[in-house]
Amino acid sequence: MKIILTQEVDNLGAAGDVVEVKNGYGRNYLIPRGFAIRWTRGAQAQADSIKKARASRAVRDEAHAADIKSKLENGPVDLKVKAGQGGRLFGSVTSADIAAALGEAAGEAIDKRTIVLGNPIKSLGSHAVSVKLHDEVSAAVALNVIPA
């Protein structure tokens, strides 16, 4: 089955890629969850627009990704959140919140979809966050969650 990915799928491809998968995997998993759409000639135009949008958001090259990595790993990044008594957060820290804080620290926009969280962040303190900047470059960032 030929499909077009609408978002990044591990070990398969990135948004806009046209890939060939087994029928059951595409029909029962990827398409119902919105990870992909069926390939048609008309949908190919949509895939091209997805690739163009991804290219505009993407880090230019590996050297640029290494530069951003050095800025992020330079020191801990502070993230201010609303907290109640005893340091409990109202909800959890989202990847969009983290992307905004990392963007300020790096001086460039960081896409929230590149942030990898092991567990949801629901408490104040220091947490480890991984950011996949490029195919070969990932940054391990120390994130300090502090009350606002």
From TrEMBL:
<dbReference type="Pfam" id="PF01281">
    <property type="entry name" value="Ribosomal_L9_N"/>
</dbReference>
<comment type="function">
    <text>Binds to the 23S rRNA.</text>
</comment>
<dbReference type="GO" id="GO:0019843">
    <property type="term" value="F:rRNA binding"/>
</dbReference>
<dbReference type="InterPro" id="IPR020069">
    <property type="entry name" value="Ribosomal_bL9_C"/>
</dbReference>
<dbReference type="Pfam" id="PF03948">
    <property type="entry name" value="Ribosomal_L9_C"/>
</dbReference>
<dbReference type="InterPro" id="IPR000244">
    <property type="entry name" value="Ribosomal_bL9"/>
</dbReference>
<keyword id="KW-0689">Ribosomal protein</keyword>
<dbReference type="InterPro" id="IPR009027">
    <property type="entry name" value="Ribosomal_bL9/RNase_H1_N"/>
</dbReference>
<keyword id="KW-0694">RNA-binding</keyword>
<dbReference type="InterPro" id="IPR036791">
    <property type="entry name" value="Ribosomal_bL9_C_sf"/>
</dbReference>
<protein>
    <recommendedName>
        <fullName>Large ribosomal subunit protein bL9</fullName>
    </recommendedName>
</protein>
<feature type="domain" description="Ribosomal protein L9">
    <location>
        <begin position="13"/>
        <end position="40"/>
    </location>
</feature>
<dbReference type="GO" id="GO:0003735">
    <property type="term" value="F:structural constituent of ribosome"/>
</dbReference>
<dbReference type="InterPro" id="IPR020594">
    <property type="entry name" value="Ribosomal_bL9_bac/chp"/>
</dbReference>
<dbReference type="GO" id="GO:0006412">
    <property type="term" value="P:translation"/>
</dbReference>
<comment type="similarity">
    <text>Belongs to the bacterial ribosomal protein bL9 family.</text>
</comment>
<keyword id="KW-0699">rRNA-binding</keyword>
<dbReference type="InterPro" id="IPR020070">
    <property type="entry name" value="Ribosomal_bL9_N"/>
</dbReference>
<dbReference type="GO" id="GO:0005840">
    <property type="term" value="C:ribosome"/>
</dbReference>
<dbReference type="GO" id="GO:1990904">
    <property type="term" value="C:ribonucleoprotein complex"/>
</dbReference>
<dbReference type="InterPro" id="IPR036935">
    <property type="entry name" value="Ribosomal_bL9_N_sf"/>
</dbReference>
<keyword id="KW-0687">Ribonucleoprotein</keyword>
